[in-house]
């Protein structure tokens, strides 16, 4: 059963936010874009009013000037039209580029830089009238309608009171010469436009955090979604167990492949087997290159015998090495004497292969032999 909206009370994870951004869902404030576009447009008109008016007068004067040759030759009319269009584009294109830059800057300011073509993909579910009705009465749509209504009411109220305050002065312009009337009217429109920008700017400042809050609310997750995302990111327990098993198998194969290069294998007849290697040119101390218990110990013993690696029955040393030395680690200093004793036995075997070499009686410090550790029940009884 799908989770209800009330169950979505956990904040969105970084992965969910990243996925939403990749799908084009970012907290954008349209009101901020409207304010920036109107503000930049008004600023450009204010700054460029005189040069633009002069340029427009010149353009119209050139466009409306004809002679007999231009009228008689339609080709010249086409060339003049293209020339006038090119001159107009020289002004319109830079202004348009400025407006596009402003639109991009406001979008980045409100929601960050994000490029996604997900929203351009065709979705036939959008043509479903039932889904459309659901979107019409959704929380986001109702909030947008309330925002637009409130903004229209604010703009209308400010405009009404401003025009009411200026009504007497505007009526009095009928008795003023035209140039003075145009100047006064332009000032009145500029002030009204400034009030409009003030309202839009204040509204946009409130809309930016509102959009981010609504975006975070839309992305909230249920407990099941959080668990599922964690499982997808970390992998299920079965998959992780298989991966660990596979890694153990690979490590075991590498370890068994190193047994033939060992100097000797120390065993506790059938329980433990530890393969030791020592190279005085590359190692500071003897190193354990393989170890195992029970069936793996027997496997190490068999491989060693096939590779003619000496196998020594030294239970205390085998137990101590298996317990206290990890794979590919050097033997600790406390076991140097015992390991040196068995290595000396190996070197004697290599020097006198045809003679009998006595088997060493290896002893290890009692505290390193697991069999010498006091049992918990014995310690408690003591």
Outline the structure in words.
By secondary structure, the chain is mainly alpha-helical. The protein has two domains: 15-113 and 126-230, no CATH class; 251-374, name from scop (3-Layer(aba) Sandwich). The chain is 64% helix and 5% strand. The chain contains 14 helices and four strands. Strands 3-2-1-4 form a four-stranded mixed sheet, with helices on both faces. Strand 1 and strand 2 form a beta hairpin. Helix 2 crosses helix 5 (74-111), helix 2 runs antiparallel to helix 8 and helix 7 packs antiparallel against helix 8. It is elongated and about 135 Å long. The two termini are 61 Å apart. 14% of the residues are buried. Residues 1-5 and 378-382 have low confidence and may be disordered.
Shape: elongated
The helix/strand order is HHHHHHHHHHEEEHEHHH
How far from one another are the termini? Answer: 61 Å
Largest sheet: 4 strands, mixed
- The radius of gyration is 44 Å
Question: Helix count, per DSSP?
Answer: 14
Number of strands: 4
Instruction: Show unreliable segments.
Output: 1-5, 378-382
- Category by helix and strand content: mainly alpha
Helix content: 55-70%
Q: In which order are the strands of the major sheet placed?
A: 3-2-1-4
Quick check: average pLDDT? 79
Strand content is 5-15%
| Number of structural units classed as domains | 2
């Amino acid at each position: 059963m799908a989770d209800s909206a009330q169950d979505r009370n956990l904040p969105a994870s970084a992965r969910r936010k990243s996925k939403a951004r990749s799908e084009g869902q970012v907290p954008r404030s349209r009101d901020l874009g409207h304010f920036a576009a109107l503000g930049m447009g008004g600023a450009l008109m204010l700054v460029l009013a005189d040069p633009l008016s002069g340029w427009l007068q010149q353009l119209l004067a050139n466009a409306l000037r004809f002679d007999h040759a231009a009228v008689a030759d339609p080709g010249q009319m086409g060339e003049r039209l293209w020339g006038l269009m090119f001159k107009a584009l020289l002004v319109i294109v830079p202004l348009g580029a400025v407006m596009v830059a402003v639109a991009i800057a406001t979008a980045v300011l409100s929601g960050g830089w994000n490029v996604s073509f997900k929203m351009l993909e065709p979705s036939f579910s959008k043509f479903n009238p039932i889904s459309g009705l659901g979107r019409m009465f959704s929380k986001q749509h109702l909030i947008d309608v309330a925002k637009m209504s409130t903004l229209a009411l604010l703009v209308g109220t400010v405009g009404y009171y401003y025009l009411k305050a200026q009504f007497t002065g505007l009526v009095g312009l009928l008795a003023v010469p035209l140039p003075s009337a145009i100047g006064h009217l332009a000032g009145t429109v500029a002030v009204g436009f400034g009030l409009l920008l003030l309202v839009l700017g204040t509204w946009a400042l409130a809309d930016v955090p509102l959009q981010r809050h609504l975006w975070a609310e839309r992305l909230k997750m249920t407990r099941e979604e959080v668990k599922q995302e964690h499982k997808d990111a970390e992998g299920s327990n079965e998959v992780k167990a298989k991966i660990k098993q596979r890694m153990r198998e690979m490590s075991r194969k590498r370890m068994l492949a190193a047994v033939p290069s060992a100097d000797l294998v120390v065993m506790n007849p059938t329980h433990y087997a530890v393969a030791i290697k020592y190279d005085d040119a590359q190692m500071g101390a003897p190193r354990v290159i393989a170890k195992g218990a029970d069936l793996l110990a027997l496997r190490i013993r068999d491989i060693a015998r096939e590779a003619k690696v000496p196998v020594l029955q030294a239970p205390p040393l085998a137990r101590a090495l298996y317990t206290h030395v990890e794979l590919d680690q050097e033997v600790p200093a406390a076991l140097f004497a015992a390991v040196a004793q068995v290595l000396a036995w190996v070197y004697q075997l290599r020097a006198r292969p045809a003679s009998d070499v006595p088997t060493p009686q290896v002893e290890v410090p009692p505290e390193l032999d697991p069999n010498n550790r006091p049992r918990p029940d014995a310690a408690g009884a003591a």
